[in-house]
Amino acid sequence: MIKEFRDFIAKGNVMDLAVGIIIGAAFTAIVSSLVGDLINPIIGLILGGVDFTNMYVVLSGDVPAGAGLQVARDAGAAVFAYGAFITAVINFLIIAFVVFMLVKAVNSLKKKEEEKPAAPAAPTEIDVLMEIRDALKK
User: Fold this and answer.
1) What is the pLDDT of residue 104?
2) Looking at the structure, do residues 55 and 36 belong to the same domain, yes or no?
3) Mind giving me the DSSP string for 50-69?
4) Residues 23 and 56 grouped into a single domain
5) What confidence tens digit (pLDDT) does each residue in 37-95 have?
6) Largest Cα–Cα distance in the chain?
7) What's the predicted TM-score (pTM) here?
8) How many domains does the structure of the chain reveal?
9) Contact of 53 with 83, CB cutoff 8 Å
10) CB contact at 8 A, 54 and 87
11) Which domain holds residue 44?
12) Cα pseudo-dihedral 12, 16, 17, 20, rounded to 10
């Protein structure tokens, strides 16, 4: 049973999946930083400094006026956090676009690689023998 498990783990598909998950986790940090640190501030600047994350409606409970979403949640109020949802949708769209651009770039590179002319095949043994025969006939 241990041998079967070792064979299963050593299969290419399992190892490829493991590498993909690790790279995906590292890539998530990069894309999250891109969105949070570079793109969202630009969007906020374009929209006049609007921060969607603190937009909410108090459904029940007491919350000090002008308090942020986290303060409202900490106070135990039931809140309808539509701003956090809008931010999540914007982040998803940005991340999906970045991933689309990366996939498109990789596919373009693969296509260029496939379009390269193939190296001529090496002559077979029969081809060499036929050339020798033709040369001897001359």
Assistant:
1) 93
2) no
3) --GGG--EEEES---TT--H
4) no
5) 887 788 778 877 777 777 888 888 787 777 788 888 888 888 888 888 888 888 788 87
6) 106
7) 0.55
8) 2
9) yes
10) no
11) 1-48
12) 180
